Amino acid sequence: MDKKDIYEHLAKIYLDASSKKKKKTKYSLKPTQLLVVFLFSVAILSLGLYNFRQSHKEKDAQSCDTSLFITLDAAKINFNFDPAKKETYSVNLNKLNLAGFKSVQFSARKKDNAGKIALRIDMINSFREKSEIYVPDIKHKWQDYKINLSDFKHINDFSEMNNITFSVEAWNTKNDKGIVYIDDVRFVR
């Protein structure tokens, strides 16, 4: 191999390597562009535009229902019934139309395994119709709960719902202190 062959071989290696680098950097984003993409993503998430999504709880894809998620993070009801008799977590539905939905579903658990805790779920519409349902025993591990909207007997019109409230009441728990977590509150068609 002479000098010319070696030179051509090295040039070929260098040119191939530099063309690969150009391809990689051709589609990279500048730091300002990354910041814009990040801020746009945060804005989309904070507006709640991703709340409409397919329920991942169903195994059979054909029986998947459309869900409207109304909470982003797990809520914590930290109750101490020394002075109080009731602790609540409420979600403002802002006159949400739930006429086409069949059930409210959520996940819940209590912090420890001591004592029985019942959870009260209240719904109120803009016409002041109010109804409640009790979930008799919240478990220590996360569990999904499903309540049909038709079980809220005193509500006739679901077209303008004001709020949904989750409550722990002193008379409905074994202990005076504890914590209940609620997550993935959603309405399902």
Unreliable parts? 21-27, 46-64
Assembly type: single chain
Order of helices and strands: HHEEEEEEEEEE
- How many β-strands, per DSSP? 10
Q: Specify the overall morphology.
A: elongated
Calculate the mean pLDDT score and round it.
75
Which percent range fits the helix content? 10-25%
Can you characterise this structure?
This protein is α+β, with helices and mostly antiparallel strands and 189 residues long. The protein is 22% helix and 38% strand. The protein has two helices and ten strands. It has helices at 3-26, 31-47; strands at residues 52-54, 66-69, 75-80, 86-96, 103-110, 119-125, 130-135, 143-148, 161-169, 177-188. The strands form two sheets. Strands 1, 2, 3, 5, 8 and 10 form a six-stranded antiparallel β-sheet that branches. It has a four-stranded antiparallel β-sheet with strand order 4-9-6-7, with no helix packed on it. It is elongated.
In terms of topology, how is this protein built?
Blueprint: H1 3-26, H2 31-47, E1 52-54, E2 66-69, E3 75-80, E4 86-96, E5 103-110, E6 119-125, E7 130-135, E8 143-148, E9 161-169, E10 177-188
Antiparallel strand pairs: 1-2, 2-10, 3-10, 4-9, 5-8, 5-10, 6-7, 6-9
